[in-house]
Each structure stands twice: as C-alpha cells, then as structure tokens.
Amino acid sequence: MAFVARARPRAVCARWQRTLRASPSQCTTSRCASSSSSSSSPLSASEHPFRIAVIGSGPAGFYTAYRAMSKIGGAKVDMYEALPVPFGLVRFGVAPDHPEVKKCQEKFDEVASSPDFTFIGNVSVGRPNKHAEGSTVPLGSILRHYNAVVFAYGASMDKTLGVPGEAALKGVYSAREFVGWYNGLPEHADLAPDLTQGDEAVVVGQGNVAMDVARMLLEDVDVLGRSDIAAHALDALSRSKVKKVHVVGRRGPMQAAFTIKEVRELMRLSDVAFHPVDRTLIPEDIKKLPRAQRRLMEILVKESGGGAPPPDAPPSKSWSLDFCLTPKEFRARHDDASRVGSTVFERTTLSAAFDPAAWALGTGEMVEVPSSLVFKSIGYKSAPLPEFADIGVPFDDRRGVISNDGQGRVWHEERTQEATMSFGHFPGLYCAGWVKRGPTGVIASTMEDAFATADAIAKDFASGASFLCPQQAASGWEGVRSETGIGSAQVVTWADWRRIDGAEKERGRPVGKEREKFTKTADMLAVLR
Amino acid sequence: MMPRPRLAQGLRSLRLVPRLPSSCIAQQQARCNSRLSAAPRLAIPGCSPRLTTSRDSSLSLRFQPRLFSTSSALSHGHVDPPKPGEELYVTFIDKEGLEHKLAVSKGDNLLDIAQAHDLEMEGACGGSCACSTCHVIVTDEEFFDKIPAADDDENDMLDLAFGLTETSRLGCQVVMTPELDGLRVKLPSMTRNLQESDFK
User: Fold this and answer.
1) I need a surface site. Which of A33, A70, A101, A484 has the fewest CB within 10 A?
2) A431 CB-side CA count, 13 A
3) Binding site: residue ranges of A?
4) Most distant CA pair in chain A, distance
C-alpha cells in the first residue's frame, strides 16, 4: 500500500502533464509556491487577476460568477456558452407563463455588466457545438489558461424508461424536448409535436416539469399568447385537441415531487376541472403532517371535493393526478402502427402509503390509458465531458453528477485496472448547479448551491490552496483564443447578446409579447451581421 | 459515495502539489490577510469589494463598512430616506450574527430595505413573491402577529424555503408600518448542511 501510495501520484502527474502539454508554463505548482519564489511583493490583482472560467450561462453559472466576483477581490470571470444567447434554463426551461421567475435575468445582466466579467457566447467547451455556426474549444485549453474552472453546464440529457414503444412510436416525447420546443430552444425548435391526434395526453412523472407540461397543454392560449412562448408553439397549441391530461406517477401523493405552487396554478386555470385523487393515499389526519406536506395534501383534498361543476358551463378540459401506476409499454394506434395510441401501466402498491420515502412494488395488474400524446417527464440527466476520463475528473453515472465534496470541489480520481484511487480535490476544478447536485430544485436552490461553490473557491483562494496554474500564468480568454484560433466574429459578446435581446423585444412588440424569441441560431447571429 | 471523502482525506498528502514549507504558508497567509485588511474572517463584507445588489444601480465595486450600524437609508435602491421624525426602525441580524439597525420609511418592504443597505439578501424574482430567496425570520412572535398574515402564494413559496420556522416570512411581502416600528428579523443561514439523502 505504501508503495502504491508513492507511485500513483506520479502516474497521475504524467497523465495530467499530457493534457497540459501545450502549456506555455508549468501549471502544476501552487499559486503560493510560485508567488513566493518569483517575488516577495504580493501579486497585484489588477496585473494578475485570479481568473475563473465558468462553463455554462444558466443560473448556476451566473450565481457562482456573481458570488465569486464579490468575494475574491479583482477576480475575473469568463463565462462560456455554447449558444449565442445566455441564461440556460431560465430562458429555455422556465415556463413562459412564469415571467416573474425569469426576473433573475436582471441580476445576471448586472453581473455581466461588470468590467471583470466576459461573456463568450457561441463557444462550446469540450463537446462539439450542436449548431454549425458555433465554435468549440477543448477543455484542455481552458484548463491551461485559468486558475479555476467551474462546470455549470447543467443536464442536457433525458433519463429513459426502457419500455417497448418508447423510442419507436410517434407522439412519445421527452418533456425536456417539449419544454425546449415551446421555449424556442434551437435544438428542439423543429420538434413539431402533432397535438391534433386525440383528446387524451399522458404525462409520465409527477415533478414540476410534468406540471409545466400539463399546464401548457391546458392553459388558455390567449394567456400564453402574451408570454414569450415560441410562435410555433403558440400556433400548435391553439390547434390542440387535447382535453384531458393524466399526470401519472409510480408512487402516491405523499411521495410526489411536484410543489404546491405548480399544483395551485393548475387548480386555478379557468375552464379546467380536476379529477379527485385517491383519498386512501392521503393520511386521514392531515393536520399532523409537517407544514409543507400538510398544505399540499390540504389543497389536493379540498380540490378533490370541489362538488359538481355548474351545469350551465361545465369545464371543457380536465386533468388528473393518477397515482401508483408504472409505465410498461406504449402501444400503437389501431389505425396507425407508427403512432402511440395508449399507454399500459402496471398498478403498484406502496411499501408504506404515507411514508415520503416509500417505494412502489408492482402488483401485476395492468391498466391501459388512452394516450394520443405521451410526455416522459422522469428527469433530466447530466453527461460527463469527453475529456473528463483523461484528466481524472470522476463522474457519478448513477446520480448523473460530477463527483464532488458537496461544496462544489471536484474530486480527483485515477482509475487503473486494479483499483480506483482518489486523490482529494482536483486543484482548481469546481462544479455548480444540476451537474453538481442532480436535476432538481427551483432557482433558489440553484442559487444557494452556486453560492456554496463560490464560497468554496473563495475559501480555497484565501487559504492558499493550489489552483490549476499560478495566478500570473493565467491568461484567460486571450490565451484560449490565441491557442485555438477562434476569431472574434465567431464569438457572441454581451453587447452582441444585448442586440439580439433588443431585436427579440422589437419582434414581440407588434404581437403584444415581451419578446419573440429567435428559435434558430442562424437567425440570432443574423442580427449581428 | 460516502467513503470516498475519507479516503481522499487520508491521501491528502499525495496531491500533486509539493507540500509547502510552513514559512511559505505563513507568507501566503499574510498576503491573503493583508488583502482582506487583516479581517478575522474570510472576505468580511465590509473589507472586501462587493458588488452592489440594488437593482437600479449599475454594478460597481464599493467599499463600505458594514459592522453594527445605525444609519439612515442610503440614497440608492427603491427606498427613500425617512423624513425626520417619521423614522421607523427595523433591525436585521445577518448571517454572521451582526445587527444592522436601520431607520426606514413607512411603506418600504424588507427586501428593498435590505438591498438598499447592501445586506446579503437576494430577490431572485424581483420581489414578486415567486421565489424564497428573501426569506426572513421574525425573532419576536408579538411582531410576527402584527404583520398581516401571509397569503397562499407567499406560504407556497415559504414551503420551499431553507430553514423554515414558525415565524418565517418573505421579505418582499413585509411592508413597514408604524405598528412594526422596532421589528427585528434574522436572515437565515444559506449554508444547508448536506444530508446523506443528498447523495441518494
């Protein structure tokens, strides 16, 4: 063991050096060691600022940047974004009828206005850019030119159910695609879901994304028409024939992931009825529950006993929370073998109905639910960057997160045939947001976790911990640019984004919307030409 | 997942970076401390540059002492300084336990007040009761009962707040009135200790 303990770091070192081969300087000494050897005077923050690269411009990236800039004097942040437009899921995930949730963009704009902040839009890191006009820089290049790197690139993949019909049938979508589609995400702008094939839709999963999908399908299109929903989505929704939405979960109301705000919004929709929930899945004595659960159960019980709808104007649409059903198969329509017609669920029973941690067991009883549309809302998933394995950044595939210490410090790990060795924190590497803690939580939770990451960086900075390279050796975006040869014409700056932003607002004005988003990257970039 | 940190700690000395002689660490420490004006804590806000948080001022670096203070509202932010003789007082107890007693005007809400005085309170949704980032804890039950009761929307957001208590409110929904003169609120600690359940 003692031998291994001495030998392994050298192996890591060799591999680490390979990644850094093109480096103009040795980047493995600590800031402290180098500063004390080069000069006795302290580094000037203005000459040699502490440079942080943030990968991703969603709320996790911006809140980390904001906090790090305020806690580390003179720190410079370069934020890389693969798309020409910033804000990640605030722009492409938050539902269009939640403009108040998007107000955090004002804070992000304030952060971006700092002279210490540089937005590098249209540039993907470590993974080929998904659109043809975008550029890509290798992660290795980023590691050579910054003191610290924060991975805040979120969760851009879907979990899958792995049941028959999931991939083959038309009409089965992931909620992530659908959300991207109605929010104008270029990647899914051409999804073109056909909402006219029938009147029943099934949403598999009971988190807040499932609630958003249900609400978008049921909400009055005149209300949606005043939001920043993509024009193609408004058009398709206005022709939708969907009248009933089943929001289906494996477990019961006591285990469901949705939060009360989203439930209340659905209850408040005009012309939309709610089908009563199975009362046996809710404890008799609700009053004894902890506050948040109590209030959630209260609203479900209250709305379930809403009485008969007024006979003169029965609601034309409805939704239900269908509990204790797990999807087993998507079946084709009788008249069209290529398109989904129904979903087969197996009924489940809970290990303990009222225990929030209860698990679901199959009963063998099958239930078939008509479904002309299916939205799988069973969770997002992060993916490792291809270079992670080479440099020793461990990725927890089961949880879909970069392995970290809970505060955002990335672990350093070396895998050999014999064993996996862990070497403590990877100096200078951090993560924040969904790639750090998994794809759950509201903006407040992402903010909190981004702040924790920034605090960890600031703490490491103040304690003289080692970073990716000595402070004076970090040249930031200038270094990356000269190394990769990316021209300024290929990069979207913050000023450029403001022009795109202005053009979108301009487009929205005649149709009474806050903005009309560009849904193609080429159209975004055309504004700048 | 859990055993790894322990292993990592055990192997800390195996890091690539050569261990520094203690004199070097001391030098480094001194450098960091001098940067932070010999602050006893990391980046004590009064000593390090901070980004202003008020929403209508452009971002700038400011140096502002922020220890115990009894001050009038500053000119920036959404609040106006109180007219002489009409001051209402509210005390914020920040995450470090420092008290900030502020003279404010009737009609100001706690989020605007906190931001105008550079207290560490976010208002991610801009004060529209759509997030829980301006969560405050009223320290005195009597005062809590004097504040008009929270509506469903506010309670829905409070349900998601970290460190929720019986006397929690959203700062954006608490508007200063003469009845609330002398109100004391605590800013909840942001750092949630990670639970084992976070790794499941």
Assistant:
1) A484
2) 28
3) 60, 81, 89, 125, 206-209, 250-251, 262, 434, 441-443
4) 85
pLDDT digits 0-9 by tens, B88-125: 999 999 988 999 999 999 999 999 999 999 998 989 99
**Which residues from A are below 8 Å from B161, CB to CB?**
444
Return d(Cα A155, Cα B12) in angstroms, integer: 31
Most distant CA atoms of chain B, gap in Å: 65
B143: distance to nearest CA of chain A, Å? 21
Interchain CB distance below 8 Å, A30 and B48: no
Report the complex ipTM: 0.85
Rg (CA), chain B: 21
Helix axes A208-218, A231-238, angle to 10 degrees: 60
Q: What chain B residue is nearest to A263 in terms of C-alpha separation?
A: B156
Q: What is the phi/psi pair of residue A384, to 5°?
A: -70, 155
Query: What's the rounded Cα separation, in Å, for the pair B81 and B135?
Result: 24
Q: Is the dihedral of CA A33, A39, A45, A48 positive or negative?
A: negative
pLDDT digits (tens, 9 = 90+) for A348-382: 999 999 999 999 999 999 999 999 999 999 999 99
The 3-state secondary structure of A343-387 reads EEEEEEEECCCCCCCCCEEEEEEEEEEECCEEEECCCEECCCCCC
DSSP symbols for B1-43? -THHHHHHHHTGGGSSSPPPPHHHHHHHHHHHHHHTTT-SSTT
A113 part of contact set with chain B, CB < 8 Å: yes
Q: From CA A462, how far away is CA B43, in angstroms rounded?
A: 8
Q: Of B46, B38, B42, which is closest to residue B62 (Cα–Cα)?
A: B46
* Residue B39: CB atoms within 10 Å: 16
Considering only CA atoms, which of A229, A112, A93 is closest in space to residue A154? A93
Tokens of B74: 């500053």
Whether chain B has a CB inside 8 Å of the CB on A107: the answer is yes
What are the φ and ψ backbone dihedral angles of A421, each rounded to 5 degrees?
-110, 140
CA A382, A385, A389, A394 dihedral sign is negative
Put simply, the answer to whether A9 touches B15 (Cβ < 8 Å) is: yes
* CA geometry: angle B106, B109, B112, nearest 5 deg: 115
Please give the full DSSP string across B81-112, using - where no structure is assigned. Answer: PPPTT--EEEEEE-TTS-EEEEEE-TT-BHHH
Q: Do A264 and B122 touch (CB under 8 A)?
A: no
**A334, amino acid identity:** H
**Secondary structure of residue A238 in the 3-state scheme:** helix
Which tens digit of pLDDT belongs to each residue from A82-122?
A: 999 999 999 999 999 999 999 999 999 999 999 999 999 99
Edge to edge, what strands does the sheet with A373-376 contain?
A172-174, A373-376, A200-204, A244-248, A317-322, A272-274
Burial degree of A521 (CB within 10 A; 0-12, 13-18, 19+): buried
Tokens linked to A489: 């014409």
Let me know: does A182 contact A96? Beta carbons within 8 Å: yes
Name residue B90's beta-bridge partners.
B102, B183
Separation between Cα atoms, residue A500 and residue A52, nearest integer Å: 26
Phi (first) and psi of residue B169, to 5 degrees: -145, 165
The type of residue at A409 is: R
Q: How far apart (Å, rounded) are the C-alpha atoms in residues A160 and B107? A: 51
